Each structure stands twice: as C-alpha cells, then as structure tokens.
Amino acid sequence: MVILSLSSLVAGCGKITAITTALARITTSTTVTRSITALSPTTSITTISTSLPPFPESSITFDSLEGTYMFPIVSGPDGNLWFTEANGNTIDKISPKTDEITSYNVPTESAGPNGIAAGSDGNMWFTETNGNKIGKISPTTGVITEYDIPTDYAQPDGIVASPDGNLWFTETIGKIGEISPATDNIIEYNIPNNGGFPTNIVAGPDGNMWFTETNGNKISKISPSTGDITEYNLNNNTNSTNIICPIGIATGPDGNLWFTESVANYIGQISPTTGNITTYDMPDNDAYPFAITDGSDGNLWFTESAGHKIGKISPQTGDITEYNVAGAGITVGPDDFMWFTQADGVDKINPLTGAITDYNVGN
Question: Which residue, 127, 125, 89, is CA-closest to 107?
C-alpha cells in the first residue's frame, strides 16, 4: 500500500510538476550506486499535544490548483480501488472487474480530500486537508462521516491503519495523529521538529509507524504503545544538496522501509532494526521520485513527478526499471496489477509485461 498525499507537492522543499502521460513506453535496467551510512536516533519524546499552533504560512489551498488532482490510491476491502479527488471534493472508487467509476461527494465544502486508507472496521478513512477533518466512508452504503481534528489548521495529510486497529495520520503543522474507529477519539503527538512537515506514513514491520518529514529531511517512527518518536537524519547521505525532501514511504518485502528522496533524486532504504540507510541513484538526473509502494512481483514501485515515469526497484539488486508513463499515487490492486493516478485519470500497469491500461476520470 502506498501512502502519499498532494501536500507533498506543495511542501516548502517541493515543486509543483504537471503530471502528463507519455505516448510511448520503454524499459531500461540500470545498476545504481550504493552507499550505506549507519545513523543513530536523534530524539525520543512522549509529548502529547494540547496546544493550538498558529496558522502556518505554507498552508495549502486546493481550490487554487487547476485540474482534478487525484493522487492517493489504495485497495479497499470490497475489492475496488479507492482514491481521492482534491479539487473535485470527492472520494472515488474504480472496479478492477468492470472498470466502473463511482464518486461520492464529501459533505464539507472544499475539504481537499487527500490521504486515504482501508481501516480495520471495513471503512475507507481519509484526510481532509482544507476541512481539517478525518473522514470515513462505508464501501457498502457510501455514507460519509467526518471528525474534527482538535488542532486548528492541522493540515492532515497521509493516513494508514496500524496493527492495533487505529488509524494514524500526519499533520503537516508538525504533529502525528491517531484516531480510534471504536471510540472516534483523536490523540495528537508533537514531533520534535515543528517545521519538519510530516507527510506520509506507513505501518512498519517492527510495530512502529514510520513517516517522512519532508522539510525536516528525516525518516521518523512513532511507537503506537508509548508515543515515543525517533528521528533519523538523511543529511549524511552521499549527495550534493542539503535538501533531501523525503516524501513517499512503504514497507518492502525485505523487511526494510523504502522511501523517495525527491529533491536529492534517490530511492532510500532504512533498516528498522539498525537504522542503517542505503540510497540508490535514479537513472535520470531530475526524476523527482514521489510515491512508493510494494508490488505483487516483489519489487518496490514508485512514481516520478518530474521524470513523468513509473519505476520499480529490486530490493535484492537495486536495479531500477522505468516505464514512460506519468503517475502520482500508486498501489497494488486485488488483480496484482499496479494501479496509479494521474492528473485526470487512473491507469494500471501489468508488473510482468509492462502493458498499460488507461481510464479517464473527472467531475
């Protein structure tokens, strides 16, 4: 499952890049440079937030963006693919069996639906970046329920289910949030670096919730049982820039966490047991790797927002293969195809043959 959000593109270290579809597809395989740096955790905290920070200058206004802007996409318990439309203000699903697309309007006007995840209660949960809410939608009835976030202007972003059954989400204001499907109670945790801009989040194999700090240039984890936060700096990686801009993050089949370093132009890997970080060069100099997810073929699949390509990397060899089709969010579907969103549609790619199928979407 990929955890990805539109806020990532408008973070302080980011750049908005139009997503377009290339007409042709090519495949290349490149063995990339590998470097390993062992890092020690920098901070551990247990603070639960109760304050209300001021409105951030880098706030996102989805209405000012053109296009439909569908980014996050995940598989649902009903066998469909679910994704959000920020400007359309809808939660959508597409059936991999019939190709039928259904849209549901979010009750809050201009809510900016963003991250989306399947919950342990059978519902699809999502963030509302402009609405400052967490929402859920029933796959069977289409009924949407919304919950206010305690912190004003929190800018909720990525969201994912944890092994304990709760939903964990990022607040780019500088917090990590947790909501219980059983009680609807929301708890918030301050991250050590208030300007870190936590973006995307995933459940790790070690029982922790791992997230990217896009402006803080860090990969971090939070313990669901204690609320302790541990951060790992990316600044010591071998690159020529001090701006790393990690965005997407996913758990790989090798038991490591994999993430994108968008501005530094790397695919990164971190061991949850040692904190060792490995980086892999992108074949193109300005690919801007964005979302990342584990695939049905044992590889990690990712999107390139500036390179306008879909890529995959082997966790065994580090070889990268690219396909000339643009994408934003990406996930593996119930049919084992890799499904991904674009600015105005949803596509899928056969991980074995590279064949691509296109579906147009729009309000």
Answer: 89
User: What is the count of structural domains for the chain?
Assistant: 1
Question: Taking phi first (over 0 means left), then psi (-120 to 50 degrees means alpha), and beta for anything else, what does residue 184 get?
Answer: left
Domain extent at residue 209: 6-360
Cα–Cα distance for residue pair 183/166, rounded to 1 Å: 10
Q: Give the global pTM.
A: 0.83
In a domain, 1, yes or no: no
Evaluate whether residue 25 is within a structural domain: yes
Q: Which CATH number do you get for residue 46?
A: 2.130.10.10
Give pLDDT tens digits for 50-93.
Answer: 222 222 333 333 333 344 455 799 999 999 999 999 989 999 99
3-state helix, strand, coil in the chain (%, to 5): 0, 40, 55
pLDDT, tens digit, 9 for 90 and up, residues 166-198: 999 999 999 999 999 999 999 999 999 889 999
**Cβ atoms within 10 Å, residue 51:** 7
